[in-house]
Amino acid sequence: MTGAGTADRPPVVLLHALSLDSSMWRAQRAGLERRGHQVVVPDQRGFGAAPLGDAPPSLGVVADDVARELDRRGIGRAVLAGVSMGGYVAMEFLRRHPGRALALALISTRAEADDEAARAAREGFVAVMADPVKGPAVIDATAARLVGATTRAERPEVLAGVRAVVAGAAPASLIWAQRAIGARGDALDVLRDADIPAVVVVGEEDALVSVADARTMAGALPRGRVAILPRTGHLPPLETPKATQAELDALLAELAAGPSGRGAR
Q: In angstroms, rounded to a whole number, what is the distance separating the alpha carbons of residues 139 and 35?
């Protein structure tokens, strides 16, 4: 198998957040395609146009879905960018398909496994989502936490769009994804072995992932750095698309520069 694209225009895989779908990457997909990259933007199983299937909840299942899509397109290696759940999937891809990632962007995500309290909270959320009366209200309230305070105040159309997509997600898919995330293991070991250009992006106003989380991940990555985006919450590709594009462009430039470009930025 050979990688599609060219040495300076490698394929890029964009992995979406929980409750959303591939449309959240619309701006970055267009920007990357204008620069000549082949861009793979899959709907993860159960979201968008992708069927949920009957596999037990597992991020490994989703990571293997990504690998199969790359195989189908004849792509051997690609740059991976994942936001929130997409970041968890990217890290699981690194574990299950070593050597296939050229560079890595982890956005609004964390490497540590859930502790018991977090797993219990997920199961409580799952129970509410299954309730046809309480579920929609809780899901709508959760959608508001996905964007930062600045977005809620100054870019209400972004929040409205997020709410619309989240409201359209099937409860069964949300439950499956929450359980898959809750069952994940610690990924810091995977990051320590990932000697590729990498950036960890976090929104300054993210209510779900902290700057400390991002610094821990970047510290584990041999070639990692942190990018903190001001006026941004949990969904940088939607809230501050130009800043997100700039970080992807910088990562691709670092990849193009090769090992001699380490530490240039």
A: 37
